[in-house]
Amino acid sequence: MTGVDRGRRAPATGTVGDLADRAEGAPVDSRAVRSFRAFVVVTGVVAIVLGIVAVVWPEPSLVLVALVFGVYLVAAGSMRVVAAVRGHGTTAVWRWTSGTVGSLVGVAGLVTLVDPAVPLLVYAVLAGVAFLLEGVAALVGAFVGHPGSSRLPTVVSGLLSLIGGVVVLVAPGLALTVFTVFSGIALVVVGAAALLLLPPRAAARR
């Protein structure tokens, strides 16, 4: 082996998860951590507040459903895009997945807000698919790693989002009142889980 060959670094091999684990010691822009945590906190609080409104509102209507899901989806989508844009030092897979999902979720929210008179099934499909996309994005983040989160809590949060998406998708067959309550509960559970599973700042990079 020549001196040139010995001086060359072997290309990195292994799964995406392995590469993420090897890069854990690399310096990460603190803005990436702050933006990710802000995304989780804002979307979690918004989900809980809107979920409670949906559950306790005395006379559910399509307009209420549109406002609840529209505001949540716009907030979640925009904050996810911000986290992706400011995710300096994170993996390209996470940034592209988060940015794409955030854009789609935000557009779905705008659709519900622009035309609140569409059928209930449309709201259910938009919100359910958005929940599923959020769950997939969370699982991708858990797999490739993110300095602002821990793997296990992110997996749990992603799975709960997937379950919430399935619940919302199958609920339109129920009455409007029942659908609104089910959807509100799903929002509260997903939001509370996101906040409760967010690791302390000191443990965020483990």
Automatic annotation (TrEMBL):
Organism encoding this protein: Curtobacterium oceanosedimentum
Protein's UniProt name: DUF308 domain-containing protein
Residue stretches spanning the membrane: 38-57, 63-82, 94-114, 120-145, 152-171, 177-198
Keyword terms of this UniProt record: Membrane, Transmembrane, Transmembrane helix
A Pfam family matched in the record: DUF308
